[in-house]
Write a structure and sequence with these properties.
Elements: H1 5-22, H2 35-44, H3 50-63, H4 67-71, H5 75-82, H6 88-106, H7 114-118, H8 125-134, H9 145-153, H10 162-172, H11 178-191
Helix pairs in contact: 2-3, 2-8, 5-6, 9-11
């Protein structure tokens, strides 16, 4: 029988409670001290591990502590500085475009609204929501590769489009817990519900998960 929205919402709350008990330390893994630093780090994190980004950003933030500094960076040098994060040419262009737009449109301050953030070069819905939820204290869901995979295995959403996954999850997750839900789903995807070898036998939400391909060992 098809699950109703109300039933799915109730199951989603149970899932979050179980994940909170299992991962009380769940939080964003990127290191930052300002909204600008988090915006830069999140752009760099595309198709790259947070660990690698955290290795690159200390030197980067030291050289470019503000949008004004980054806006004046040399493209070739910036590419070399972020090369190890992958897709460095596209990311360097995105960082320069973002910094110049923040400087020109917002006086050097990272905007707080989702609309203004997603209007910046290189900033999509996921990146905007990471900044809103973690730098500005808002409640926002960020669909990264882990949230995308885990939410579908848990039967909370279903789509090939991350933006559609976002909309479906927002409809069933508690609005006041969207940022924390992001952290919990990500850490669950990293520690238990891995892409290739999920640890289903020890999964804290196994009984709440309808995924038909659960592993037995």
């Amino acid at each position: 029988m098809r699950e109703t929205v109300a039933t799915r919402r109730a199951r989603a709350r149970k899932i979050l409670r179980a994940l909170e008990r299992t991962y009380p330390d769940a939080k964003i893994a990127l290191n930052f001290t300002s909204p600008f630093e988090l915006l830069v780090a999140t752009i760099l994190s595309a198709q790259c591990t947070d660990e690698r980004v955290n290795m690159v950003t200390p030197g980067l933030f030291g050289r470019y502590p503000t949008a004004r500094h980054l806006a004046g960076a040399d493209l070739s040098r910036l590419e070399d500085e972020i090369r190890s994060t992958g897709f460095f040419r596209a990311k360097a262009r995105a960082l320069l475009g973002m910094a110049r737009a923040v400087l020109e449109r917002h006086g050097g301050e990272v905007p707080r609204s989702r609309e203004a953030l997603t209007a910046l070069p290189g900033v999509g819905l996921k990146t905007a929501n990471v900044v809103i939820g973690n730098a500005f204290g808002g409640n926002a869901l960020a669909v990264d590769t882990h949230v995308f995979r885990v939410s579908q295995r848990l039967g909370l959403a279903r789509s090939a489009d991350p933006d559609e996954i976002h909309e479906q999850l927002v409809a069933v997750l508690p609005r006041e817990r969207l940022t924390q839900a992001t952290h919990l789903l990500i850490v669950h995807g990293r520690r238990t519900c891995m892409a290739r070898k999920p640890a289903c036998p020890v999964c804290p939400v196994r009984t709440l998960c309808p995924w038909s391909d659960k592993t037995r060992r």
